[in-house]
Amino acid sequence: MRKLTLAALLLAAVSAVAMAQTAPTQPAPQAAPAPAQKTWFVRLIPPRATFANDMTETELALMNAHFVYWKDMFEKGVCLFGGPVFDPKGVYGILAIQAATEDEARAIASADPSVKGGVNHIEVAEMRIAFLQKAH
Description:
Alpha-Beta Plaits
């Protein structure tokens, strides 16, 4: 009886392996495609019109960290271009960044150390870049 039980178990195991090998395989579920990236215009607004000329030591340190942050975002391909605008009424910064949603764009811009530190604030709007030089 014991040999019969062992033989039945062995037969069941062999059958299961054979069925698994001949069963049609289901395609692996695919990950959802990444959301399409949009371009966002970010305006970085300093606390006062004279900011570029009279930063405190703390503000200067935050602006240095701001530069490092956006340089890293540029190298990662998140920031397409950016820099200061020397408006006679007061300098401000602009950036064009890529993100799937406005919330994501705001999160990226809000992570700027100068924004987190309370020095600058941001405005964000979707944009489409019509002309952009390619790297030579």
